[in-house]
Amino acid sequence: MAENKPSGPGGEKKTRQIAGAALPLYLTMIASSAASLVDTAVLGRHATASLAAFAVTLAVFSPATAAVSGAMRGVMPFVATHKDDADGLLPVLRNGMWLGICVGLLGAAAVASVPLIGRAGGVPQSTLDELGVFPYILACSVLVMSIAATATSTLVGLGKGKAVMRSGMTGTGAAVVLSLVLVGGVGSFEGFGLPGAGIAMLTSSVINASLAHIQLRRDTVLAGRSLRLGRPHPREVLKLAAVGIPLAATVLIKFAVLGVLAFSAARVNTDSAAVHSISLSLVNLMFTAAVAVGQATVPLMAAHVKTGDVQEVRRSAHAGVLVALGAVCGLALLLVVARTPVISLFTKDTGLHDKVLDLLPVVLLAVLADAAQAVFGFGLIGIKRTVPSLVIFAICYGLLALVALPVGAAGGLKALWLSLAGANLLLVAGQAFFFQRRSGSLTRPEPAPASA
Predict the structure, then answer these.
(1) Which of 91, 126, 154, 301 is most exposed, with minimal Cβ within 10 Å?
(2) Angstrom distance (rounded) from CA 259 to CA 255
(3) How far is CA 319 from CA 207, 286, 431, in A?
(4) Considering the entire predicted model, what is its pTM?
């Protein structure tokens, strides 16, 4: 009997493939984050009241769009399975668009309710008066972004990261230019203020969605096919939702608990709140690399999931973890080397600067653990088993939410971040355990019976 050797590329080749596919996705996400900083800066220079209204709306808009993106990531493994099969891929895309519209409408409704949410939350009336049509423009943007997310998740599932980068960078560039012109004005044009920022964000979403769909038509196996929506197939939409909705819920849990941590840090003192905010910004720059790597890992696993090759499925996920940890370590090293100029971008206060540096080792531990758990989470996406991720997140971050306030009060900011690092380490163990267990249940397809 022939030896049963593992199929597919070796571990070293997998890491190169994942790194190459993840880089354009990472650059796209970083550019988008930078564009949001431009909006903040331009609005801050325009009027403080506008900036306050912008922040209130983003407090709902950001988790809404993150949840939509999370839900649409559930489409990726279904897409990757039909990478070379246009007839199989087309219904996945159409049902994915229906799922995107459904979650997009929910997100849009939440953003449109910002005036009501703000009033219930005690936001000053002067800030609510400044909102105007801005929440409704962003509600439209959420819906458009859900359609864009369907296309970009499909492109990622097909291994077309550069196509995602082209559409994303174009939309981001348009957002930056339009924000500079429409918010503050240029020449004799005085600008629209806050509505101008909304128009810029909506236009960016439309450009991103349009280009992503154009590239689906032009650069994939779907070339020449009609991508019209068609009628929904509820059973197939629910099959996609069964993978995607737990991801959206996981994102919302993370946002909620990080909000509790921010509140706990603010209760310590003003400096702690500022240091916590700066540290989170630094974490986001590094953690985004892990998200990009995780997305790049899913299509690499697809062929092995389809054939039930457990060893190669696990090898792909482990390679993704190594790439993610390497990327985060590289970014962390860069941060340590350039710590003074980097932190100076966030504050000129030397006292805060020193406190950020003092907290940095714990922050790096937290983000390394977060990176590892995230890639194992994407491994569970690849095998279409996302409910375990939701369960382990609810447990670990639920415990973190319970202890955040007393830990912050008793031990200060460092103790709070140690608690976050501990929760992330528990997540690594939980995600890895569930991935190992659920991937072991994959079965090879039955061989076709020999013809007579």
Answers:
(1) 126
(2) 6
(3) 34, 18, 15
(4) 0.89
